[in-house]
Amino acid sequence: MTPTTTAAQTIDTRLLPDGRTEVLDPVRRRWVALTPEEHVRQTTILRLHHHLGYPIELMQVEAALSLNGMTRRCDIVVHSRGGAPLIIVECKRPDVPITQKVCDQACRYNTVLRVPLLLLTNGTQQVAIQIDYDRHSLRQLADLPRYQPSPAG
Predict the structure, then answer these.
(1) Cα–Cα distances in Å, from 3 out to 31, 38, 77?
(2) φ, ψ for residue 51, nearest 5 deg
(3) How far apart are CA 126 and CA 101, in angstroms?
(4) Which of 31, 37, 68, 79 could form a disulfide with 22, with the two C-beta atoms 3.0–4.6 Å apart?
(5) pTM here?
(6) Strands (E), 38-151
(7) Rounded to an integer, what distance in angstroms lies between the CA atom of residue 19 and that of residue 85?
(8) Average pLDDT of span 19-31
(9) Torsion sign (Cα): 132, 104, 52, 124
(10) What DSSP state is assigned to residue 144?
(11) What's the rounded Cα separation, in Å, for the pair 29 and 131?
(12) What is the CB neighbour count within 10 angstroms for residue 68?
């Protein structure tokens, strides 16, 4: 097992006999293939947890949802203690730019989940968006807010 350190966070990896590399996902609690997109997902999980304070146990990876009769998967969904979805995170490989198409994908997922926050990232580029349902508007944020546990969950 080889730890990779990024911004005071550690990603545990292991090299398999066939040459493939796996990463230990702290949310799914299992080893998964280390692809470029998976690396972005894992560093984002650790950033959400260590830098912004979101508890690992409130995160869901590859969260399934039904959209227009088809099953889709959100890269990461962060929930409240009460179980309500708070953030949809869409991860892309580092060579895939964050474009309107990526934003549209997350917004389509959000027609089902109706979260107040979106995060779009490729590991080097990040866009955080706050959704105001009353005003039917989106506002780009400098970053996601830090986790604030509410008394109601």
Answers:
(1) 13, 15, 25
(2) -90, -40
(3) 14
(4) 31
(5) 0.91
(6) 59-67, 70-79, 85-91, 117-121, 126-132, 137-141
(7) 37
(8) 97
(9) negative
(10) P
(11) 31
(12) 8
List of residues 6+ apart from 30 with CB closer than 8 A: 24
SS3 label, residue 27: coil
pLDDT (0 to 100) of residue 10: 84
Say what the pLDDT of residue 8 is: 47
Q: Which residues contact 107 (CB under 8 A, 6 or more apart)?
A: 118
* Mean pLDDT of the region 12-29: 96
CA angle centred on 124, ends 119 and 128, rounded to 5°: 20
Residue 96, exposed/middle/buried by CB under 10 A (0-12, 13-18, 19+)? middle
Separation of alpha carbons 144 and 16, rounded Å:
36
Tokens 């260590």 found at: 50
CB 86 within 8 A of CB 148: no
Residue 11, judged by CB atoms within 10 A of its CB (0-12, 13-18, 19+), counts as buried
